[in-house]
Amino acid sequence: MGMLINSKSSYMLFKDDVSASYYIDKSAMLNELVNIVESDIHEESRGKGNKYICIIRPRRFGKTMMTNLIAAYFSKGIDSADIFGKLEASKYGWYDRHLNKHNVVYIRFNDVPEDCSSYKQYIGRIERLLKDDLIMMYKDIRINENDSVWDAFGKIVEYGYGEKYIFVLDEWDYIFHQDFVTNADRRSFIKFLSMLLKDRPYVELAYMTGILPIVKYSSGSELNMFFEYTMATREKYSTYFGFTDEEVDKLYEKYIGIEAEPKISREELAEWYNGYHTVSGIKLYNPRSIVGALTDNQLGDFWTSAGPYDEIYYYVRNDINNIRDDIAAMMAGTPIKANISEYAATSMELKTRNEIYSAMVVYGFLSYEDGYVTIPNKELMDKFADMVSKEESFGAIYQMAKESESMLNATLKGDTELMTEIMEKVHNSESPKMYYNDEAELSSVLNMVYIQARNLYRVEREHPAGAGYADMFFYPNKPDGDCIVAEFKVDASADDAIAQIKDRRYAMRFMGRAGEIKYTGRILAVGIAYYKGDSNKRHECKVEVIRDRVQ
Predict the structure, then answer these.
(1) 237-284 per-position pLDDT tens digit
(2) Is a pLDDT exceeding 50 seen at residue 186?
(3) In the chain, which end has fewer C-beta atoms inside a 10 angstrom radius, N or C?
(4) CATH classification of the domain holding 98
(5) How many domains does the chain have?
(6) Of 230, 255, 275, which marks where a domain is finished?
(7) Residues of the domain holding 489
(8) Cβ 158 vs Cβ 202: under 8 Å
(9) pTM value?
(10) How many angstroms separate the CA atoms of 507 and 483, rounded?
(11) Buried b (16+ CB within 10 A) or exposed e, 94-131
């Protein structure tokens, strides 16, 4: 038992994870790994997986919790039956066969020496701790101070022990984000991992995690033994990271039982934190955000606050291939076609829109499904909206965002003159991609004009209601807030739009089951028209109260 080999820390950390109020059992992941570990032992398991695995996920998607789980289960360092005996893993036939039966090397690469200012200090700590552990464990083998770590492991194999090790390596790419690391240091680190792991008889399994794929940093063959699994391009292991709909349902039921006064609806969890997908289309929620919201009994920016969301702006500041227009379209709810690769170039090397989108998908800023990228959820939408409302370099998009608060206030006051003025002002400075050719394009532009309404409303576009589809619904965050249903028309009047809202009973969408009152505020019907044949780009706006406030 040592600091990095068969340490107690993974057990202690995982025990804390399991005891949390909102824990989801992902221990079935061990079945995948046991199949790999046993592939050299049991004939029926042969060929079931490569023993070099690299899981690539955005930060706070459960990577570290999984490394704690894996190390705590396999490690000889401590008896973890008190934890795993209650989990899904205990139901498998292999459970007792591998529980605490393996040597585990667990390295968290985001652990650094005190006052670390150089790569030599950083990697020196890891090498020293590994050799100290080996010397303590194998006192009869002479390991010299100047031995490389891989030579030290090699001596244990060659001098009679023949022991193998499961390597669990968390946040492998942490070092690449540190200011004290040079390009030469990065190459040295890649070589260190290659020499430690590649073609070594003592490696039983190498399980590694990170935010960015290996190929981003290793262009040669140094680490080509790893199979990389990203959320956007590889299906295997996908449901072990992030929460599925069913898992969020379970957590929400627990939340309802715990909280005396629950303040979050299940629908709000989906709006705020859903939006990611496996390759096969299974929905995934951001786990940190779900747990944070349920624990605090409050919706908020739990994931984006865990790191500098300003990274988003780095990817769009140069407006490569008019990418800002794409951002505006995505903010308006329009998916953008993209070819996502399995790697993301460094921010200074992004040369094409597909490289930018690849990076943003890997970091979790965008979601990718069926060849299109989108903004995943309200948590991320709020960050994009905040960015465009602060950056004048976004031009027309910036102007739309700045006008959106005034547009909402004018709508709630029924100030159709100001609404019309804002519409025409935005239209005259519109982004190149935002043409008013038909109702669909007008709907996208209006979604941008109302972007700040998302602070007070859950906004849905073209949602089924009554006897048809309305262009936009605004569901207030508070039960006494005003509800808004909006319809947009091209070459038809605002009165026609209002008539459609009433004729097709769109307002029924704001009622609960069996017609009970769900929102006690007013219900406003908003009609907005644009006459595209008019050389003055004339707009017309109308607001009608179709239900007054419920007393």
Answers:
(1) 999 999 999 999 999 999 999 999 999 999 989 989 999 988 888 999
(2) yes
(3) C
(4) 3.40.50.300
(5) 2
(6) 230
(7) 395-551
(8) no
(9) 0.85
(10) 9
(11) bbeebbbebbbbbbbbebbeeeeeebeebbebbeebbb
